[in-house]
Amino acid sequence: MADFRSFRASAVVLRHGDWGEADRLLTLYTREQGLLRALAKGARKVTSRKAGHLQPFTQISVQLAKGRDLLIVTQVETVNAFLALHDDLAKISYAAYAAELLLRFSYEEEGGNPTVFKLLTDTLSRLEKESDSWLALRYYEMRLLDAVGFRPQLFACANCGREILPEDQFFSFTAGGAICSRCGDGVPNLLRISLEALKYLRHFQRSTYREAARARPNFEVQKEAEQLMQSYFTHLLERQLNTPNFIKQVKV
Q1: Burial class (CB in 10 A: 0-12, 13-18, 19+), 47
Q2: Bridge partners of 207?
Q3: What whole-number distance in Å separates Cα of residue 67 and Cα of residue 11?
Q4: Distance from first CA to last CA of the chain, Å, rounded?
Q5: pTM for this prediction
Q6: Is 7-81 a domain of CATH 1.10.10.10?
Q7: What is the pLDDT of residues 3-41, one digit of tens each?
Q8: In terms of Cα–Cα distance, which of 162, 180, 177, 163 is closest to 236?
Q9: Residue 83, Cα to own-chain centre: how many angstroms?
Q10: Taking the CB of residue 31, how many other CB atoms lie within 10 A of it?
């Protein structure tokens, strides 16, 4: 008979914090059950064998037991430490951004989402290996929005439904997508979006990562697409994210 008091999970450590005198409180995203919190007892002790496996942005295989109030880590082993991330402050800041986004759009007991778990681990791997983070982060943003039910409408006007023509358009955070030039005068709180930026965002929405990697947007288009996505997240979450400011400080 299965022991439902204990189970194994594939997980990524999103963050950790001190708990009591020697324990660690972990925030995990698991393939099987989504967002979980768990306690690693004694993990802050110098002699702990668990500590090295529980660093943020580490992919692990973990055995969890149901405690009185929290899940307890009973066994853990590293699947992928993404070591190069931890040697580069900029890369760490990008990983922290990916983690924060996932945390903002997740809640405990919502259940597992293997698609999101794979997107997260693939993104951490790309951030670790690639010198330029722009593509990995924009692709992650767009695919995460798909997975959590906030896919922006980029191929038809979010106001009238007509197909978007190959020209500069508008973007409405309230309507959740592109607004054609014909509707632009009648919809409030619009942001202008260039044809080039729209083209790349649409490309990320419908392409594999390998296909998306062929895109070569110039710096201005990259900046425009990034700012649009940041503003869209602020609207959806009704608050600003913390990590973009950290990223800016690291880049200075």
Answers
A1: exposed
A2: none
A3: 19
A4: 57
A5: 0.91
A6: no
A7: 568 899 999 999 999 888 889 999 999 999 999 999 999
A8: 177
A9: 19
A10: 19
